[in-house]
Amino acid sequence: MEPWLCSIRPENFTEEVILEKKPVLLVCMAHDDGFSKQLKVLKAVAERYEKELKVGLLAQDSMETFKNRLQIIGTPTFLLMRGGKEINRILGVSDQEALTNLIYQHLSVYNSENVKT
Question: Least CB-packed of 66, 73, 90, 100 within 10 Å?
Answer without folding.
Answer: 73
